[in-house]
Specification:
Length: about 270
């Protein structure tokens, strides 16, 4: 497995983007469903007057690499309210297979004719355009099939995958429920090339911090972060959020200690890769 370090991504990336624009069509896919039992309809929960998912989409629109941003939801009628967020933010909505996320991504990739897919989970409200662009560039330049990040807070990383590799995985897999743990279909496949984007910028490298929306404690955490940044007049960006969180142990404590419960649930739901 090869690794690429990304210290000072913000300034280095801007220079690379100017000198070497993306040539392949890139889509940011945001998988979202509204049937969560741990925190029902969490994508629609309001934080300071806006649905939680809207904060993520507004930030992703600042990325330079995507040609299209797509909310990838299901054909379940209960997911219909997500159309209003797509309309409000000016992004696309694709509705596909409820349980087979890989098939949903594959169908969305074919519909939008994208070559490169940047996955950003709808639960991960602080994924930043800076990392989206870095993953997209590594995915294209390295010819990797799958790109993951290492070093960011849990829930702050994008994942990259090549649409051609996705089609191959979908053609060969036997599992029909891939909504949880789908990355193993790529990471454990010896025929596919995986790259790791290692974040060594000390301001960003905080794997001990949790930034994903699964439980009520996570909701309280995001409320505190976004409301405090708004009060200070600062943008909802990953760097600003981390500066706040690392200076406020009380905010970080709001959702600390959830890892054991989270991973127990994850492992109980994850389908084994072929």
């Amino acid at each position: 497995m090869q690794e690429r370090h990304a210290g000072g991504v913000r300034t280095e990336l801007a220079a690379r983007v100017t000198a070497s624009p993306w040539k392949m069509k890139t889509g940011v896919f945001i998988p979202v469903r509204l049937d969560s039992t741990r925190l029902p309809r969490k994508a629609l929960l309001e934080i300071a007057g806006k649905p939680a998912l809207q904060y993520l989409i507004e930030r992703l629109k600042l990325a330079q690499s995507p040609d299209v941003i797509v909310i990838c939801t299901t054909t379940d009628p209960d997911d219909a309210p997500l159309q209003s967020i797509a309309d409000a933010t000016g992004v696309e909505l694709f509705r596909g297979n409820k349980d087979d996320l890989l098939e949903r991504f594959h169908a969305a990739a074919e519909h939008h004719q994208v070559d490169l897919i940047i996955n950003v989970d709808g639960d991960d409200l602080l994924v930043d355009p800076e990392q989206v662009d870095a993953v997209a560039q590594l995915l294209e330049e390295s010819r990797a099939d799958f790109v993951k990040c290492e070093g960011l807070p849990f829930g702050a990383a994008a994942i990259g995958l090549r649409a051609e590799a996705l089609a191959s995985v979908c053609a060969r897999k036997n599992q029909t429920d891939t909504a949880t743990g789908w990355g193993t279909f790529f990471a454990n496949d010896a025929s596919l090339q995986t790259q790791t984007l290692v974040i060594d910028d000390p301001e960003l490298r905080h794997p001990e911090i949790r930034m994903t929306l699964d439980y009520e404690e996570d909701f309280q955490f995001f409320q505190a972060v976004f409301e405090e940044l708004a009060r200070q007049g600062k943008p909802n960006r990953l760097r600003e959020a981390l500066r706040l969180i690392t200076s406020r142990p009380d905010i970080q404590a709001l959702n600390s200690g959830l890892d054991e419960k989270y991973w127990a649930h994850f492992n109980s739901q994850a389908a084994p890769s072929n």
